[in-house]
Amino acid sequence: MPSPLSPPLPAGGISQVPDAHGRFGRFGGRYVPETLSAALDQLQAAYDESRADPSFQAELDQLLVAFVGRPLPLLFAKRLTEYAGGAQIWFKREDLSHTGAHKINNTLGQGLLAMRMGKKRIIAETGAGQHGVATATACARFGLDCVVYMGAEDVRRQEPNVRSMRMMGAEVRPVESGSRTLRDAINEAMRDWMGSVETTHYIIGSVVGPHPFPRITRDFQSVIGQETLRFCQQELGRDPDCVVACVGGGSNAAGMFYPLVEHKGIRLVGVEAGGRSPKPGDHAASLSYGNAGILHGSLSYVLQDPDGQTADVHSVSAGLDYPGVGPEHAWWHDTKRVEYTSVTDAEALDAFDLVARREGILPALETSHALAWAVKEAARRPKEEVIVVCLSGRGDKDSAEIARLRSIENGGAHA
Amino acid sequence: MTSHHAPKSQVSKPLSETFAALAKDGRKALAPFVTAGDPDLDTTLAVLEALDRAGAAICELGVPYSDPIADGPVIQASYTRALAAGFTLEKFFAMVRKATGRVKMPILAMVSYSIIYRRGIDRFVDDAAAAGLVGLVVPDLPLEESDVLDATCKGANLALVRLVTPTTPPERAAEIARRSTGFLYCVSVAGVTGARTDLPAGLVERVTWLRTKTDVPVLVGFGVSTPEQVKLLSSVADGTIVGSALVRRVGELAAEGPEGVAKGVERYIADLVNAAR
User: Fold this and answer.
1) Are A289 and A332 in the same domain?
2) I need a labelling partner for A330 at 20 to 30 A (CA). Which of A387, B23, B47, B216 fits?
3) A20 in contact with chain B, both atoms CB, cutoff 8 A
4) What pLDDT score was predicted for residue B3?
5) Which among A33, A362, A315 has a CA at the least distance from the CA of B164?
6) Number of structural domains chain A divides into
7) How far is A95 from chain B, CA to nearest CA, in Å?
8) Which of A188, A209, A230 is the last residue of a domain?
9) Domain interval for residue A126
10) A55 included as an active-site residue
11) What is the mean pLDDT of residues A183-198?
């Protein structure tokens, strides 16, 4: 299989980012307290070394095969395609990854980096819990101490993942400050890191944060897009017409899109969380409704008030419930290489039901946003066209929360 | 001093005058940090006047931010309270304008770059200068990202105070020290803000070394709360910054209203000022 660390890309153009300062056009950079500067330099150096070291790539490749289960197939969604009545819908089955989502690609890579730097303690933040589980998993596999920060609201919404993390020996610390969701979990993880940076590596879970995190996470996730290209060639004999992924911080989308951005014929679409409405506070669609601003160490699109205070956001899915987005997405947005749109909570829930019943797959609520858009779009496109949806994660974690929401909708008591 | 820098005496005149006056009296600077708008801006105004009466040399006024990753639980909670009470930048600058008309100690803003960037760098710096602030401390803006703000501050005669921490490698620390204007902020411990009981090992040596790398005064902060600590630090540094310990007191006294808070703060800071020599 192709290594995720050496993406076979044509030279020049939109993929030649970030620069040495972590800039994706005007976005990205490193806006952190001085205490973290040395650790980020160390991480950058360790990462550059590892890219040049065939033994690092070999170890990661082996883990991706035997531990994660890669490569992961493309599946033709036959009954969903019939339902939509237009273009063919294919699923890139990241939900078949060990731990049930793409997050594990990044945590294994960064776990190996941590060991290379001699760091024995790992911290992470998590929203939906998928990154927390993937981090706990990598730490158990590598024998590293693991602390996961998780918003108290998300601890409630994603209880099965909390249990899994604890079973694998991770300490889950609920975060009670602020909105008690992903953004607050990142704040707490950063604060922990401020005091522990000499012995601890922070495995950030998305393509967000200060340089070099957005690049490292994107590179470790690029295996998604590489496999997609390869399988499309093998099974269809051509590139897909359109590839769609959900975007919160944007790691599954970045991993899917990055190997494709130089393939100009492929339409790329990122789907954000439209929440209840386009009103401020009702959604988490930073690219659709936000402004350029700084959050969690990088310049990107953020949802802020005019004073620069981070806005409250909402999404039915904990993993998309975030007021920022990775700086490379901001770059792709401004260069118009990727289209960004949003779907509502209700549309995502309907897509969840539809895919459960017509395909026998429970998709994650995050992924359900991409699915909702794909079904709408397929109906408008001819049968010859191929839409690939990044099925970024499985929805077992969401079943209790969905049952609770449906019960409220139907006038029942809270589950 | 290098040619691309404006003369430091111009950039930070009120600060250099303050340090010169202290030196004449054989005293060191006591520089309190207080959160603007906690519990409300009327109280902050009263606190600033109390700090001035107590003999504080300089004040750092914290601008509340929703996601302060450099701050520990005490200052974070004060930011949350201030924002919940309706803090805005318009009200902040209006209060600062009043304060700078009433007190003699120079006031700097401690502010996240997220807030500066969103308002627009030129506009924020203009507003700060117009309100009478003498400088900015931007804890989440490292050297590499600071050229634009640096130049804008110099154009407005505002100091841009930079921070060095225990994790900063020596060469980088020397560069930060060289480029800091007004004074240099030496962070005593790696970690978030918060009062601590002991001073870390190696701090005395580090401060002594830093003083050889810059022609601006070196102040030490993070974890300072008692007169004993202030006394010890004053023997090696040009001054001491007291943050979380003061913010906690303001929070505890809040129920007593602006006058009650001001009285308690004045007594606490006067004791620390006495130790700063």
Assistant:
1) yes
2) A387
3) no
4) 38
5) A33
6) 2
7) 32
8) A209
9) 103-209
10) no
11) 94
